């Protein structure tokens, strides 16, 4: 058993998330966490709402709430959505937590005192029409790199390049649409990323098991010339800069606390730190449940700082737009905490417990909707709240992961959803469980039959199950989710093919022992199929296991020979056939859903999505 720390990219606090957000980080992280727990590992799976930033302020104003009230409301709503999707977070925290505030301020202070922050006078966009500084993402214009006309001032969502508002061509206010903008000077703190370029390149180069999607995005940033990045902003909502408490940097200079007064840390600085903050929140919450004093640092630091974290494997999940901040920005923060500049400006060991950097990073492409983008404003696409009004969570979990956007962008269509659900779930898994349990109940008194010995059909099945289980385990360990789903389905198909050959409903007429072997093997296959389905479909797995009087204790990952797995149920053990597991999706359902959620994208939307 080993310790595995799993984090999903933090969903932004503003609004209900669509299926693309779900399958781009949180859902695959959950599938992996469930698989690793089934293997017996000590897993800590964390996520949180990302609550800082100017978008929160403006969205709160639109709802007539304070930022604090807005974040509390939407945190609870999002948490409820993810619970209904059976996301098994050990803790779902908040980036506005007291723990993250303390960490962010302490880390910024350390970075200053280590020599990796510096003050710079910057140009900020001010809107005369709106009578306020505009946050980066509320300046919209044409991307200077790809020509996309609706690029935000912090990042172009079309080409994923990180931007600053002055980079935009023909900028305008996202609030009022006004082009009456001016640039004003403001002092801000910058993280000196550029000086870590060689360290980052060597570190990224050592990650041979990272997907090409991730390394290509990270190396593109380095190849284009890594730039220092501002980590403070002129907005009200966020973690305040507390520079008045900081010591001197290696040059003996303290920060200009007066010039930094009233500023907050940029969301892309404090948000990744919330991975650590959420661990601290988890430790405090656990201490409270155990009716003991709040956790001391050792309870959460053992996941993040050496030597306690030396045996931890840290795995991150995210969409491709988040990759740069997790392969450059956050690692630079941690590099800067682990090292410092000496008086000569050279890197030296910080002589403090080292912070844990990510070991494995799984990035995802986009899930599009009929070739276009999910859109709240245009009422196109499926969002996590309405999705559960029409199908159970397990159905969504399975189909999204079977079609996960790993190697390239993938498209959601209702026709594909219908085909996949009917084929994989209703016709293959559901039909198998229904047929064998009902036949066994009718002809063997609803008890696992004894008698008979495995024959040629069973021996062939044992060989195939052993081979496919080994492949399935490897795909899960490699976080190849589409392949894992395909191999899971292939195992279900193997069971159906076995039943066709064994045909206990025919054998029972002339050979009771042969029929008993077929039914007994089929019933044990039901349990096996539940176990391998569990990472994808935990509720369905629970329903199948409950039919045999089994609970969570049966959810260990299958790692014994198939010969033992398929004779594990005690002979004579009673069982109860479950209700039909999956209802087929009809053409009429598809028509209704397309009308409700929107159909094919326009040509312009399709071109933008690519």
Number of strands: 18
Indicate the low-confidence ranges by residue numbers: 602-606
Strand content: 5-15%
Give the mean pLDDT: 93
Major sheet, described briefly?
Answer: 5 strands, parallel
**Helicity level, as a percent range?**
40-55%
* Radius of gyration, CA atoms, in whole angstroms: 27 Å
Q: Distance between the terminal alpha carbons, to the nearest Å?
A: 43 Å
**Class by alpha and beta content:** alpha/beta
Assign an overall shape: elongated
Strand order of the largest sheet: 3-2-1-13-16
Structure annotation, total helices: 21
Keywords for this entry:
610 residues, alpha/beta, 5-stranded parallel beta sheet, 18 strands, elongated
Topology at a glance:
Elements: E1 3-8, H1 19-38, E2 42-49, H2 54-63, H3 67-84, E3 91-94, H4 98-114, E4 117-127, E5 132-133, E6 139-142, E7 151-152, E8 169-173, E9 181-191, H5 197-205, H6 212-223, E10 229-230, E11 232-233, H7 257-260, E12 264-265, H8 267-289, H9 297-301, E13 312-319, H10 323-338, E14 339-341, E15 347-349, E16 360-364, E17 367-369, H11 384-390, H12 393-402, E18 410-412, H13 414-443, H14 456-477, H15 481-502, H16 504-507, H17 512-533, H18 538-547, H19 562-565, H20 587-597, H21 603-609
Parallel strand pairs: 1-2, 1-13, 2-3, 13-16, 17-18
Antiparallel strand pairs: 4-5, 4-9, 6-7, 6-8, 9-10, 11-12, 14-15
């Amino acid at each position: 058993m080993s310790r595995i720390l799993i984090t999903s990219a933090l969903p932004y606090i503003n609004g209900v998330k669509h299926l693309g957000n779900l399958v781009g980080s949180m859902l695959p992280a959950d599938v992996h966490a469930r698989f690793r727990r089934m293997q017996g590992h000590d897993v800590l799976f964390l996520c949180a709402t990302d609550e800082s930033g100017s978008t929160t302020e403006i969205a709160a104003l639109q709802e007539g709430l304070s930022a604090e009230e807005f974040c509390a409301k939407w945190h609870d709503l999002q948490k409820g959505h993810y619970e209904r999707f059976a996301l098994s977070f050990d803790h779902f925290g908040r980036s506005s937590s007291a723990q993250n505030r303390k960490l962010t301020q302490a880390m910024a202070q350390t970075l200053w005192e280590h020599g990796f922050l510096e003050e710079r006078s910057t140009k900020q966009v001010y809107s005369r029409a709106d009578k306020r500084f505009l946050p980066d993402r509320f300046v919209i214009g044409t991307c200077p790199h790809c020509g996309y006309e609706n690029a935000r001032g912090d990042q172009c969502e079309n080409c994923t390049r990180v931007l600053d508002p002055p980079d935009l061509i023909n900028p305008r206010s996202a609030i009022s649409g006004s082009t009456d903008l001016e640039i004003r000077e403001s002092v801000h703190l910058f993280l000196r990323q550029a000086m870590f370029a060689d360290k980052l390149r060597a570190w990224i180069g050592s990650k041979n098991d990272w997907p090409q999607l991730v390394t290509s995005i990270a190396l593109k940033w380095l190849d284009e010339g890594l730039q220092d990045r501002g980590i403070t902003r002129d907005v009200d909502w966020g973690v305040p800069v507390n520079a008045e408490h900081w010591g001197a940097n290696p040059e003996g200079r303290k920060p200009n606390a007066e010039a930094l007064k009233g500023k907050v840390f940029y969301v892309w600085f404090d948000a990744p730190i919330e991975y650590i903050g959420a661990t601290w929140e988890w430790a405090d919450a656990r201490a409270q449940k155990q009716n003991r004093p709040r956790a001391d640092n050792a309870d959460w630091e053992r996941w993040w700082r050496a030597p306690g974290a030396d045996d931890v494997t840290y795995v991150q999940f995210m969409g491709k737009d988040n990759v740069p901040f997790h392969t450059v920005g956050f690692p630079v923060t941690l590099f800067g905490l682990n090292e410092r500049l000496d008086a000569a400006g050279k890197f030296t060991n910080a002589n403090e417990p080292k912070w844990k950097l990510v070991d494995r990073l799984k990035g995802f492409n986009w899930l599009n909707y009929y070739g276009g983008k999910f859109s709240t404003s245009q009422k196109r696409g499926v969002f996590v709240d309405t999705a559960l009004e029409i199908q159970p969570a397990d159905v969504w979990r399975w189909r999204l992961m079977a079609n996960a956007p790993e190697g390239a962008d993938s498209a959601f269509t209702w026709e594909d959803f219908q085909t996949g659900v009917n084929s994989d779930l209703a016709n293959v898994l559901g039909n198998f469980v229904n047929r064998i349990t009902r036949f066994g109940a009718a002809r063997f008194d609803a008890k696992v039959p004894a008698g008979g010995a495995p024959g040629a059909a069973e021996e062939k099945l044992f060989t195939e199950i052993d081979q496919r289980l080994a492949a399935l385990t490897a795909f899960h360990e490699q976080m190849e989710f589409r392949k894992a789903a395909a191999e899971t389905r292939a195992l279900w198909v193997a069971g159906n093919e076995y039943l066709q050959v064994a045909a206990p409903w025919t054998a029972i007429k002339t050979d009771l022992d042969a029929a008993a072997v077929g039914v007994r093997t089929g019933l044990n296959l039901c349990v096996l199929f539940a176990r391998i389905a569990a990472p994808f479909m935990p509720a369905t797995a629970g329903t199948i296991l409950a039919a045999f009087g089994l609970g969570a204790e049966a959810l260990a990952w299958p790692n014994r020979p198939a010969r033992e797995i398929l004779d594990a149920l005690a002979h004579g053990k009673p069982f109860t056939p479950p209700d039909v597991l999956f209802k087929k999706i009809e053409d009429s359902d598809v028509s209704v859903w397309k009308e409700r959620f929107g159909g094919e994208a326009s040509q312009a939307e399709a071109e933008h999505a690519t």
